[in-house]
Structure formats: C-alpha cells, structure tokens
Amino acid sequence: MTVGRKVFVFNDISRIDSISKQTREVIISIYYPSEAFGNRPTYTTLFEPCIPLAADMLCSMGVNKEHINNLNTGIYNNASINTTVRNCPIIFIAPAFGVVRDMYSFCVEHLVRCGFVVITVGATHESIFSIFPEGRFIQQSKEISDIDDLDINLWKQLLKLRFEDLKYVLNNVEEALSSVKDLMAIVDVDEMGIIGHSLGGAAAYDILKSERKVKAGVLLDPSFHLITENKDETAPVSLLVVRQEKCSIEELKNEISQELLLMLLNGYNALYNSSYTNSSYIKLHGAHHMTFSDVPIHYKEDGIKLKHSIVNDYISAFFEEYLMNKEYRFNELMKNKLRDGIDEIDSNGQVI
C-alpha cells in the first residue's frame, strides 16, 4: 500500500489573524491509503510547489543539501484513493513549535499503512515555513522566532491559537475529506484520535479535554509547563505520553533553567495524577525532544531509524487498541517494553 497526500486550506472567517490582519487560514495535509503510483518520490516533493525555497531554508539551518535532495518518501501527492480499504479512523497531528506539519512523515506513513487516515495541522506564521498550494511561502514571523522560553503569556497565546485551529479543523473535517475523491467512503468519522508533539502536545491535550469526539490521544514530549489541570477539567480518554530519555528532575536540572524546570515538572505531575485509568506514561532510551519528528532524518542522526520504528509500533498499537477495538494490542506490546528500550515512568519521571 502506498500513501497519498492532499493539501487543503481552511479559511476561518470568524477569526482575524493577528499577524496577517486577514481571516485566519489553517493549512492541513491529508494522508490516506492510495493506489500504487510508480517510483518512490523524493522527500522534498512534500514542499511542492516551493521546493527550492524550502530546501534552501533547511540548508541555512545546517541540513546537507545533497542529503535532503536525495531523501525518498513513500508519500505521493494527489494519488488516487485505495478504495478496497474501509473504516479508517482519523488521526490528527499537531506539530512541535516551528516544525512544519509535513515533517512527521516517519509516523504518517506507518499509521496510514496500519489503516488510519492522518491529518497534520499546520501553524501559519509559527512554523518555520508554510507552503500554500498556489505557491505562497510564508516564513515564521520574527516576533514568534524571538520568543523567550519564559515568556509564558506569549506561549499561552500560541497555545490558544493552536487549540482554535485544531478545533476548527475538527468541526469542519468532512469539508476537507470531501476534497479528495472517494475518501469519505473509506473513513470512519466516529473514530478520531490525536497526536501532539511539544507545543502541539499541549494543544492536543486541550482538545482532548473539550472535544468528546476525539477518543484517544498520544502526547509526544509535550510542553508540560503549558498544561493546566484541575479536577473539573480532565480528559476522560485513553492517553499515551511518550517522553525523551531525560525526564526526571535529576536528569533535567542541568538542561533547562530552574524556573522552567519547576513549571514543567508541576505540569507533568498534575497531568499524571489526573489521567484516566487506561493511560500510560513511558520514555524511550536515547530519545531527545526532536526524536519524535523527521528532523533527525534531515541531519542523518545515527540510530534514528530504529527509534522511529519503536515509536511507531507503540503509537499504532495504542490507537489500534483504543480506536480499532483490537483488544490488548498495546498491552501485549508493553510486555516487551524493556527489549524495545522503553521504560514506564511515575509522576516524577522516574522509572517504575
């Protein structure tokens, strides 16, 4: 099975973008099971129709030009639907701060081949770049690129914008799905899950608290310092939290400021202690914050293929159990967690 991709742009006329001063545009990529489509395309086709601009920007950030231009992908733009597939749950992905929505291909390809339709939701003006179908190339705004880690008010503004974008996409998802011929015939709009990474993880959790149509969530090293919890505002869904290797106070004390560390640990502890019964908190040996994206692939990081494979196995098993009713799929996988370099962790990030 191959993976097709269609870009779709929402125009939310109810909101004015604070940067563009125009109505808020939310750009998404829809990934779906597709028919066989010839030779594997290059990774940079994900940046059509602005491939040179995107490649140059990545190279300015230290990515090797020859490497990025020679990477392949199993994703085919505008490919035909594989209509033999049926009842595909929908998984939304909310990226990390600055990370382009299509830079989760390692996970997207795997999920689609496991029978899911995936929608990645971009963050215009916050992502390092946003590419629109007609050729607009919008870079990250300077105000956002200069944000300080402890400028919590601005971070909360970005979080609110992410939440509103995700909510709009959720509430109008059938409009986007209908833009791909025959796609509505293979999806199950009653089964939805969400993945969020970093800032996207905090936004995904806010969605899980407010949108009951989303039935399961995976948070990849989320921004815990932006997560607030109280007994009247919890997410009554199955939750999988996957963290980088360094996640306890001892492991992080020399990595980030004391003030930020305390906020992060308080947020994590509150989330852990308010979680639904069928929730799991794990960490992956050797993982860092960007392990949960394509970024390490861009920089040819040693061992990333294996780490991505492990992350994929746990994410897909989790959603198969809680969205596809494949009983014990995730729980069976957890029996072999030590073999995979996975540890369960407690409310303080310590190995159980």
Automatic annotation (TrEMBL):
<dbReference type="Pfam" id="PF03403">
    <property type="entry name" value="PAF-AH_p_II"/>
</dbReference>
<keyword id="KW-0442">Lipid degradation</keyword>
<keyword id="KW-0443">Lipid metabolism</keyword>
<keyword id="KW-0378">Hydrolase</keyword>
<protein>
    <recommendedName>
        <fullName>Platelet-activating factor acetylhydrolase</fullName>
    </recommendedName>
</protein>
<dbReference type="InterPro" id="IPR029058">
    <property type="entry name" value="AB_hydrolase_fold"/>
</dbReference>
